[in-house]
UniProtKB/TrEMBL annotation:
InterPro entries: FAD-dep_OxRdtase, FAD/NAD-bd_sf. Residues 30-383 form the FAD dependent oxidoreductase domain. It comes from Mucilaginibacter rubeus. This is FAD-binding oxidoreductase. PANTHER family: PUTATIBE OXIDOREDUCTASE, SARCOSINE DEHYDROGENASE-RELATED. GO terms for cellular component: cytoplasm.
Length: 400
């Protein structure tokens, strides 16, 4: 499965940070983790000091799946508005999921400080604007509902939006809590720290078969190596779906571009994350080197791959839409790519176990909040494996 096509900015910018060998022998472990992207790295890092023997396996190099193509918007708002989510999972659960995503942003901030390295991390406010006048009332209801539940939000009228952000919209929610990060760099840093704790990372190691037993799991690699583990964590993003017997998500293709460096350092008010109410929505933010990232224009997943002509057309559409909104910014695309994007029935991730795969835990951070969902998944799976109580297990379970 191609998780991205063409030139993700983070991969070109950072290159191969660290290389790991493929597995060439049999192993016995307490915990095996399939995947070496941001979800797996966060989960591995959470378990690094647990006293368990753990190893990470990926058929690619570290971070070169969906993580390399992530646009790394850190938002507590999920793709399903809070006013809609309350009807799907109940008001208390809906609010809790938003609160957990907000907490995850600040957990990432603390994590970046503790790792003492540069990950292009910043806390940023976000702005969600009404794409059409007909969306204004529902967006205002969303604002009031969030404010009622203690989120730090402000309602902006059309004149305030134009004054602060330089474009026209009939109304918008300005949220204080948001952030951005280079997920590819962070993934490498987490796994480096995990390795220093005495654990192993294996690249170019494709798991071909998984057998479940009463006492654990046996994995076999493409080259015939056998891994025996007591527990298995599957955190290989959208490719995890092949291990689940029922359909839990729709996969779309999404598109992004990063501009050439621009003369300005601050492009709009506080360089906020900006997105809209239309579905699918366009979003944009500032990135390092005085560049702007734009994403969106989702469509059905292209299999087996997306032709370069489609990516160029989508990138042109994103650029034109941005310039229509921000004609005063002389933006020109420098990098463009496409990535896989999964949508669940309620916009929430799936975390935990299914009866068909005993001793196995899934960290599936599907949706537009993949990184914040992965923080939540890492904490929940840590507690499940160590048999500690976690009050949020049911909220993200497969049988919710």
């Amino acid at each position: 499965m191609n998780l991205y096509e063409q030139q993700p900015y983070w991969l070109i910018k950072n290159g191969i940070i660290a290389s790991y060998p493929s597995l060439q022998k049999d192993l016995k472990l307490d915990v095996a983790i399939i995947g070496a992207g941001i979800s797996a790295a966060l989960t591995a890092w959470q378990l690094r000091n647990s006293g368990l023997s753990i190893a990470v396996f990926d058929k690619r190099h570290v971070g070169m799946g969906s993580t390399a193509a992530s646009t790394a918007f850190l938002q507590y708002e999920i793709d399903t508005p809070l006013t809609s989510l309350k009807h799907l999972v109940g008001e208390a659960n809906a609010v809790t999921s938003y609160q957990l995503c907000r907490k995850a942003i600040y957990d990432i901030a603390d994590l970046c400080k503790s790792l003492k390295s540069a990950f292009d991390f910043s806390l940023r406010p976000s702005l969600q604007y009404a794409s059409f006048k007909t969306h204004t009332n529902s967006l205002n209801q969303e604002y009031n509902f969030r404010k009622k539940h203690g989120f730090e939000v402000h309602w902006l009228e059309a004149d305030e939006i134009e004054q602060k952000f330089g474009f026209k919209a009939s109304g918008a929610i300005f949220s204080a809590d948001g952030g951005e990060v280079d997920a590819y760099l962070l993934t490498h840093a987490l796994l480096t720290n995990f390795g220093k704790a005495g654990h192993k990372i294996y690249s170019n190691t494709d798991i071909k078969t998984i057998e479940h037993h009463k006492q654990g799991i046996t994995l076999q690699t493409a080259n015939g190596s056998v891994i025996k583990a007591k527990k298995l964590i599957i955190a290989c993003g959208y490719e995890s779906l092949k291990y689940i017997p029922k359909k839990i998500a729709e996969i779309n293709s999404t598109y992004a571009l990063v501009s050439e460096p621009l003369p300005d350092v601050r492009f709009w008010y506080k360089n906020s994350l900006i997105w809209e109410t239309a579905v699918p929505y366009m979003y944009f933010r500032a990135v390092g080197e005085n560049r702007i990232l734009i994403g969106g224009r989702d469509d059905l997943f292209h299999h087996p791959h997306i032709p370069p002509s489609v990516i160029k057309r989508k990138a042109d559409m994103l650029q034109q839409a941005f310039l229509k909104k921000m004609p005063h910014i002389p933006l020109k695309a420098d990098f463009s790519w496409a990535g896989a994007f999964a949508i669940t029935k309620d916009g929430l991730p799936y975390i935990g176990c299914i009866p068909e795969r005993p001793n196995t835990y899934f960290a599936l951070g599907f949706g537009g909040n993949g990184i914040t969902f992965s923080v939540i998944a890492a904490e929940i799976i840590h507690d499940l494996i160590l048999e500690s109580k976690n009050e949020h297990v049911q909220l993200f379970s497969f049988n919710r």
